[in-house]
Write a structure and sequence with these properties.
Layout: H1 12-29, H2 56-62, H3 65-75, H4 85-88, E1 94-99, E2 102-106, H5 129-142, E3 146-150, H6 162-174, E4 179-183, E5 193-196, E6 204-208
Parallel strand pairs: 2-3, 3-4
Antiparallel strand pairs: 1-2, 5-6
Helix pairs in contact: 1-3
InterPro entries: Calcineurin-like_PHP, Metallo-depent_PP-like
Keywords: Glycoprotein, Hydrolase
Protein name: Sphingomyelin phosphodiesterase-like
């Protein structure tokens, strides 16, 4: 969430300007340091509004491609020059190889957010985020890579739909051998949550920070 929380004052133009200014400040004060971003729920206009791209009638009128384009444009200030993030973005998600054998996957968990009411138009994997994540993890597994997953809203946090979180836990269970870390924000406090094997409820398979 780079945008201030005075939601009664936000506009699309204002949010874009804030995203740009925050990126400039990070680039100025942390020169040469790679920074890997994830889209927060306050970045959109209206706030929390992330229509599923696969519903054309909704996306054409209310979509947030303007935001995804702005985020990618600004993130290029501090992502590695050869990063594939700009070309690989999908529904506000991206993936990039940090070093040989290590990949970061940034997912847009606003598609599991209970206050993103656009998900009522398509409640099964809105944005195809989970499908896309599985495809990226399969590729990483095939290439012998380890993965960190980053996002804004933690899938096990109370603001995320339980069913979406359960399906995410199925993904974590399947790929627990290569997912070495998960890092999120949103809750404004330090939290640690455990994923348990969906087949064996007492077996921990992943940690959300």
């Amino acid at each position: 969430d780079s945008v201030p929380h005075d939601l009664w004052r936000i506009t699309r133009r204002g949010n874009s300007a804030v995203v740009s200014e925050v990126a400039k400040m990070i680039h100025k004060h942390f020169p040469g340091v790679p920074v890997y971003g994830a889209i927060g729920n306050h970045e959109s206009f209206p706030r929390d509004s992330f229509p599923p791209p696969e519903v054309p009638s909704v996306w054409q009128r209310f979509g947030v491609q303007w935001l995804y384009d702005a985020m990618v444009r600004e993130w290029q200030r501090f992502l590695p020059p050869d990063s594939i993030a700009p070309s690989a973005r999908f529904a506000g998600c991206y993936t990039l190889t940090v070093s040989p054998g290590f990949k970061i996957i940034s997912i847009n968990t606003n598609y599991c957010y209970k206050f993103n009411w656009w998900t009522l138009f398509k409640s099964v994997d809105p944005g195809h985020v989970l499908r896309w994540l599985v495809s990226e993890l399969l590729e990483a597994e095939s290439n012998g890579e380890y993965v960190h997953i980053i996002g804004h809203i933690a899938p096990l946090y109370e603001d995320c739909y339980e069913e979406w979180g359960h399906q995410f836990s199925r993904v974590v269970t399947r790929f627990s051998g290569i997912i070495r870390g998960q890092f999120y924000g949103h809750c404004h406090r330090d939290e640690v949550k455990l994923h348990f094997d969906v087949r064996e409820s007492k077996l921990p398979v992943g940690v959300e920070y």
